[in-house]
Amino acid sequence: MTAVVLDAPGAFRLTETPPTAPGPGEVLVAVHACGVCGSDRELWHGTRPDGYVRYPVTPGHEWSGTVQAAGEGVTPDLVGRKVVGEGFRNCQTCDRCRAGDTTLCTAGYDETGFTRPGAMADTLTLPARLVHTLPDDADLTAAALLEPAACSAAAALEAGLRPGERAAVVGDGTLGLTALQFLAAMSPAELLLVGGSRHRADLARSLGAGVFRTKDDPPGPDRAGYDVVVETAGAPASAQAAAALLRRGGRLVLTGIPGPGAAGLDPADLVVRRIEVRTVFGAPPRAWSHAVRAFRTGLLRTTPLITHRKPLTDSGAAIALVGSADPAVGKVLLHP
Question: N or C: which end of the chain has fewer CB within 10 A?
Fold first, then answer.
């Protein structure tokens, strides 16, 4: 198979190597598409935090594909099925895993595309317990966005939005536009999206936003009073901006990971206004199931978020696109 290998930050190559045969409890998947996100760019540039990458590595944690082979102990019915898969290789036995918080596994961080070979390759081998099957007629190109959508689903579940409440999303990237759809499905009284520019205003409205404004727009009547705000941008000041939108007693969910030096939340403000803060890092199985169900039923639309598709051999160009800050660049996919 052909695979992208990062030997070290900035040092990547294409390699030809035999696929890894599935062992007991594993499946071999033919990769259809692999999404590129900001964390893949961190791998390329060496800015991924210590302990959250192990070089050399084949990146790629957002993917879709078809099961080619099943290892011992795996039902052969999986062969030929369209699938997506969770990335966290949790131990299943620690207290956090047994509680369903598999992204907090105390055995240590271990994830496809960061510490294990990922999907920037023709094939991917992973535990069968991590795959989620899709309908036979599923669009595998659209399904490649189900990993970030699962993270957004985790944020929506943490937010606990109830019908008739006011909600807002800060950030108009893949996380923001998928979180928007999960919140829209809960019939909020008002749904605001705060984007980086007006470039995605029409797209946001088509996906459920009732109100759109940019982070630089002057304050208006929608400035505060929201019951729930989901922050997805990960910009230096986006957490503060998201908190400012909340009513007293509101709920803030942080999913974006800002770089060093980002402005922090004011503890006094959180206490006085009794703001409830929750965070998301990856997606546990319940969030994956939520995202896959929404995708199956058509409540989650991901195709409109895809702007670029490139062959695996153009992985370096794909990484550059993701880091270009061009508002016309949405989700970039690589195809083997």
Answer: N
CA distance 290 to 312: 30
Type of residue at 126: L
**Cβ–Cβ under 8 Å, residues 167 and 229:** yes
Q: How far is CA 13 from CA 4, 44, 159, 183, in A?
A: 6, 12, 41, 41
What DSSP designation does 282 have? S
Torsion angles phi and psi, residue 271, rounded to 5: -70, -50
pLDDT at 217: 87
Instruction: Please give the mean pLDDT across all residues of the chain.
Output: 95
Distance of CA 123 to the CA centre of its chain: 21
Kindly provide the residue ranges of all beta strands, DSSP E only, lying in the chain, ordered along the sequence: 2-8, 11-16, 26-36, 62-70, 82-85, 123-127, 131-133, 166-170, 190-195, 211-214, 226-231, 246-254, 276-279, 306-311, 331-335
* Domain architecture of the chain: domains with CATH: 2-145+302-335 (3.90.180.10), 151-279 (3.40.50.720)
CA separation for the pair 181, 156 (Å, rounded): 10
Q: Which residues of 126-140 are buried (b: 16+ CB within 10 A; e: fewer)?
A: bbbebbbebeeebeb
Would you state the structure tokens that stand for residue 251, as one six-digit string?
A: 């709920």
pLDDT at 205: 98
Residue type (1 letter), 202: D
One-letter amino acid for residue 213 of the chain: R
DSSP 208-273: T-SEEEETTSPP-TTSS-EEEEEE----TTHHHHHHHTEEEEEEEEE-----TTPPPP-HHHHHHT
Q: How far apart are CA 170 and CA 243, in angstroms?
A: 10
Confirm whether pTM is higher than 0.90.
Answer: yes
Helix (H) / strand (E) containing 44:
helix 38-45
Count the alpha carbons within 13 Å of 288 in the hemisphere toward its beta carbon.
Answer: 23
For residue 218, pLDDT over 80 is answered with no
Cα angle 276, 279, 284; round to 5:
130
Joined together, the tokens standing for residue 240 give 């503060």
